[in-house]
């Protein structure tokens, strides 16, 4: 394992809906990230390392392209997600509605916010925008996009230790 990934830092995610602080601790580590609405997981298309490879919802199969290293940046609650198979980071080219989330050599920071049903992943630069499984579609290869936070379950995610 890479030495930088061996640190075990725990941060308490920002929380809403009056959750207790014990229920919302996420430790740096490797996770499968499951959408609350559909049950599909965040998947890097074929685990490709090519710049701009789509991040999508897909039925869970346990492959390394569906596992993500969560690492806090040291800047507040900001974190990055790095795909286990490709080594690329979760990223996006703009912070506006319907921008596709992709794999990239350049990481973009996100902030976890706990809610009653899971975690919302806000863009660190514009907190009103979040990661969204497009149209709550359970089909394989449904894009993960950036969208205004509208408090729906397709914008909420469970972090399952991998």
TrEMBL record:
Residues spanning the signal sequence: none
Record-linked Pfam families: RicinB_lectin_2 (PF14200)
Xref: InterPro entries: Ricin_B-like_lectins, Ricin_B_lectin
Domain of life: Eukaryota
Domain Ricin B lectin: 26-101
TM spans (from-to): none
Coiled-coil annotated residue ranges, if any: none
UniProt name for this protein: Ricin B lectin domain-containing protein
Organism expressing this protein natively: Rhizoctonia solani
